[in-house]
Amino acid sequence: MSGGVSGTDALARRLGTGDAVVIGLGSMIGAGVFAVFGPAARAAGTGLLIGLVIAAVIAYCNATASAQLAAVYPTSGGTYIYGRERLGHWWGFTAGWGFVVGKTASCAAMALTFAAYVVPGPGWAQRAVAMAGVAALTALNYRGVTKTALLTRVLVATSLTALAAVVIGIAVGGDAGPSNLGGWTAVGAGGAYGILQSAGLLFFAFAGYARIATMGEEVRDPQRTIPRAVPIALFIAMAVYLVVGVAALLAAGPGRLAASTAPLATAVQAAGSAGLTPVVRVGAALAALGALLALIAGVGRTTLAMARHHDLPGRLAAVHPRFRVPHHAEIALAVVVGVVVVTVDLRGVIGFSSFGVLIYYAIANAAAFGQPAEQRRWPRAYNLLGVIGCLILVVTLPWPSIVAGIVMFALGLAGRAVVSLRDRP
C-alpha cells in the first residue's frame, strides 16, 4: 500500500477504542447541537426532523465506508489516501482539498462560536478570545495526541451533562408542548427541497466521525478499533441530536428557532426555564472547544498526508521528533485560522463546510464501492446510497454555499494542474 509510512516519520499508535470514540464525539457534539437547528428550521420548519433522519442515514453510509477503508489503509489522511489508492491521485486530491479547506473554515467557526458564548460583548473582544482559543488548543495538540484525547473526553462529558440539563429543563419548564410544533403545515413548510436542504445543513453536525479515520495512523489495532469506534460515535451523536431537536421544537416551535442565532438558549427560555441559559452558554462554549480541538488534529493529519505526497508543501509533512505530531501542519493551520477569525464573518460557514465535506464523503463511498469481498464489512448498497445521498444534499444546499464551494474546488484543482505541469520532465 503506497500510503504507508514507517520509521521516524510515522506517528505513534496510542489511541484505543474509547479514545477514538471520544474524539469522534468531540468533533460531532460541537456547534451543531447549539447552532445548526436555527438554519435547519428556516429551511424546513418542523420538517427538520425528517432532514435530521436523512442526514443521519447518509452519515451512517459514509461512516461504514470510512471505517471499512480505514481498516485497510490505517494511515493519516482519511479519504485523501483512500481516493488515491482506489480511484487515482486526482480523486484523492479533490477529497483532501475539500476536507482541508472546508474544515479550516470550520475551525474558525468553532473558535468564533466559543468566543461568542464566552464574551457576549464587542466583536473585537470575541475575535481576540477566538484567536486565544486557537493558540491554546494548537499548543495542546502540539504536545501529543494522548493529551488531545484526554481533554476531549473531559469536554464531551461536560457538554453532554449540559445538554441533559437543557433537555430536562425544557421537559419540566411547563411551557413546552406539541402545540408549539405548528401542526402538519409546519412539517411541510419548506417542501421536499427545504427538507433536503435542512439535511445538508444538519449533515455538518455529523461529520466529526471522519476524525477517527483521519487519525488512523495513531490508533492501536486499527483493523479492529476503527470499524468499532466509528459507528459507536455516530449512533451516540444521532441519539443526542434527535432528543435535543425534538425538545427544542416542543419548547420554541420552528418559527422562533428559525429566527434565533442561539436556538437552544431560545428554547429553554421559551419553555419557562430561563435560569438554564447560563448552562447553555457554558455547554456551547465547551462543545465548541471540543470540536475545535478535534478539528485541529484531523485537519493537521490530512495536511500531513497531502504534504507527504507532494500535494501541499513538503515542510508540512514534518513530524515532531519527541511528541510525534505533525507540528508544522498544525502551526500553519493555526496561522490560517487566526487570519480567518480576524478578517471574515463566518455565520454562513455551515453550508460552505457541508459542500466540501459532502464531496469528500461521496469520494469515500466511491472508493469503498470498489473494495474486494475480502475487505468488505458492509454491503455495497450502503456505498451506492452514500454517493447518491451526498450528491443530492450538495445540490440542495443554499446557492451561495454551492457557488463558494465550486469556486473553492476550481481553485484547488487548477493549482494542482499548474504544479503538475511545472514538475513534468
Explain what this protein looks like in three dimensions.
With 425 residues, the chain is mainly α. The protein has one domain: Amino acid/polyamine transporter I. Helices cover 75% and strands 0% of the residues. The chain is built from 17 helices and no strands.
**Strand proportion:** under 5%
Decide which structural class fits the backbone: mainly alpha
Rg calculated over all Cα atoms: 20 Å
State the end-to-end distance: 26 Å
| Total beta strands | 0
CATH secondary-structure class: Mainly Alpha
Q: Main beta sheet: strand number and arrangement?
A: none
Low-confidence stretches: 1-8
What is the H level of CATH, i.e. the homologous superfamily? Answer: Amino acid/polyamine transporter I
The CATH topology is Amino acid/polyamine transporter I
Proportion in helices = over 70%
What pattern of helices and strands is seen along the backbone? HHHHHHHHHHHHHHHHH
Shape: globular
Kindly report the average pLDDT value.
Answer: 83
Enumerate how many helices there are, as a single number. 17
Q: Return the CATH architecture.
A: Up-down Bundle
Overall tally of domains: 1
Quickly describe the structure:
By secondary structure, this protein is mostly helical. Helix content is 75%, strand content 0%. It has a single domain, classed as Amino acid/polyamine transporter I (Up-down Bundle).
Write the layout of secondary structure elements.
Elements: H1 17-28, H2 31-44, H3 48-72, H4 79-86, H5 89-118, H6 123-142, H7 145-172, H8 183-187, H9 191-206, H10 210-214, H11 222-258, H12 263-270, H13 277-308, H14 327-343, H15 349-369, H16 380-395, H17 399-423
